[in-house]
Amino acid sequence: MEKHREQEPPVVLVATEVHNVLIEGLRELGYTVIYRPLCDAHELLQWLPKVEGLIVGSASALSCALLKRAARLRFIGRPGSGLDHVDTACAEVLGIRLFRSPEGNADAVAEHVVMALLAFERQLLKADRSMRQHQWLRRQLRGVELTGKCLGIIGCGHTGGALAQKLSTWGMQILVYDKYKTAVEMKHRLPHIEVCDLEAVLKRSDYLSIHVPLTEETRHMVDRDFLRRMKRGSVLINTSRGGVLDLSALVEAMESGQLRGACVDVFEEENWDKTKVSADFKSAYERLASLPNTILTPHIAGLTNESLYKCSLSLMEKIALWRKQMEGRKDE
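^ that's the sequence the OP posted. Answer follows.
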């Protein structure tokens, strides 16, 4: 009986929505795939001791205590960029390999930022609402052009680079700051950008877009002091992680007129229909939502049909390469 169990194919739990290219690819590698895109915390807990692989989205928190219950777990895959919901240090100690695919949704997020900026400056949402109320506010809805303005980008990875690439042809001045990349490296990829220090980006940018991972270093990086150092009357866009931004500080900057607007896609507390948010967050969010010069979206910047495929394919390729390398070591 035990011998029969040892010969059973290893199991991978896919606990988030993915493209079929990943599911079929895992099966071709010999895995039994359990596809539970709506997997909740209780079901995840039941499966953890049984799986060799785990594919999760940003809503599935994997603490060290949970990882220690996954005795067979050899890899975790994240279709997308952030792994802030996984105790990566613990995973490394336990020998669990981590895979992600940030390149897969870079274009989707970059396009979302462009859309948000255009919608904000051309007052698209207000125009749509007024038309539905049979109002003709043509002269009151005069817009602002992006051409000739200055866009600051903090973080020049896959997504920040994609945004810089797209808007560099729009006649915008693109300022980029990345603490962990050299000017030579960034200029090689993006010859039309201007690499600056953080202070220059904050002081000169008409629009500032954040593209950094959530770490202990970046948590609440955008705080009161950060916002005070930004150019007065500028617009902040955050599509990275909610924890990067101090929401109360943003509200204060908006209410004081330090910032002219904000486009926010990610929040420190999310999935409101499934989890209870804290009183402090609810208060700050309601103040933000009451302001007319905001565009707020529910963490959708990276969600497109194309990014679902590209993230899934990239993840599949990385897992397949890892498997090939592991099998090569066994043959040695």
